[in-house]
Amino acid sequence: MSELNKEVVDLVWGRPPMEECLPPSSIFFVFITGFVFSENEQTALEQFEGGPCAVIAPVQAFLLKNILFNRESSNWRQMSEEEQKTALCSTLSEILESACSSPSTGFCLVTWAKGQGPHTSTHTNTQSQSQTQDMPESSQPPQEQQPTALAAEDLGFERFHSVLHKRTVMSVSDLREEVLSLYHTWRGCCGVLLFLYSVILTKGIENIRNEIQDTMEPLIDPVHGHGSQSLVNLLVTGHAVSNVWDGDRECSGMKLHGIHKQASVGFLTLMESLRYCKVGAFLKSPKFPIWILGSETHLSVFFTKEMSLVGPESPSEQARRVFQSFDPEDNGFIPESLLEDVMKALDLVSEPEYVSLVKSKLDPESLGIILLGPFLLEFFPDQDSGIPDSFPVYHYNGLKQSNHNERVEYVEGTALVLGFEDPMVRTDDTPVKRCLQTKWPYIELLWTTDRSPSLN
């Protein structure tokens, strides 16, 4: 690991910090956590400090996908300890498989060097005590007891990077077996960081640098400790691109990389409602109805079991996506000169005489623009989306302090997806709702709790 230390540290934490930046050793201490299940919600991971959500939230999203859609159980919220182990390790393996650029290079797992892991503290936290009190002392795995904050501080940033060991496995079956054998490592001190380093080295440092838009931007923000969009995209899609739109775009002669295929789980962000960015269809319409929600500072997860929400793209949805690809500023219109290109891209009749006729119909005042709404009504009128009027939904926030009574539990609710006509039901205007409206403009949310779940 020693020869890669500086490259990994520079990529994750940044080069020597600017004056306003925290030293990496300060940010490091919020990443000492492992993947720990909530005592109050058996399928939910708990986050103890701000920062690691960029790793924990994507893992939680994939974990829910596997529990909801790949596991045969009458109650998806109930899991034994053995089922938790299987579900978490299969999820971590899946993310590592997605990050692997080439099967010939194998998969890298970053663990503690033999005998070099953090010493177990004599004072363990409540969760560790409850998980190990029934086990004979000799059989307790060394990482099962969580070090206290003091024990982790004794480890230190420099010490941590000096006691890491990299191992490589060449097949998917060996990867899954190794990840399973390291279950207590993932759950123990720095388990989240060890997994992140495993993903980075599996992907390849040079491959990540080639995908990041700004190679000077570290994966973890040196001022606040938040994960970058490149880090989130790496875990969600296997590609560390910096943008959330579909495909690549040219800007001043520079190619800007986006998302190139439909993701398994999605991503929506409050930043889009503020018009700072535009999330493309590959993240907005994933294969499974699970979305990571981004606020200015935190990541949480919104999900449902309603698969009709992520069914095949309807012709009108495809038309909207194609139209918007010609409208990168998200103005809601395109110059009339681009109408023929849009019609060709959608395999519509695009003979010059017909295009001219459509222009005069869609732009009767000769303003020189074509609006999205009239375009969709002209070619795809009254098309049923197939989405039910209402369906159960859930929201996950891993931070204890962001949950009611500081208990990490899913918040249940009902979503109503209405038409563009003035809805009869109006619920509160909350950050969660504004985030979801970037996908469903007329969604309304009725939560079973007194207050709306928090994005932060």
Automatic annotation (TrEMBL):
It holds the Pfam family MINDY-3_4_CD. The keyword Nucleus applies. InterPro entries: EF-hand-dom_pair, EF_hand_dom, MINDY-3/4_CD, MINY3/4. It catalyses: Thiol-dependent hydrolysis of ester, thioester, amide, peptide and isopeptide bonds formed by the C-terminal Gly of ubiquitin (a 76-residue protein attached to proteins as an intracellular targeting signal). Residues 119-147 have a biased composition (Low complexity). One of its GO terms (cellular component) is nucleus. This is Ubiquitin carboxyl-terminal hydrolase MINDY. It comes from Seriola lalandi dorsalis.
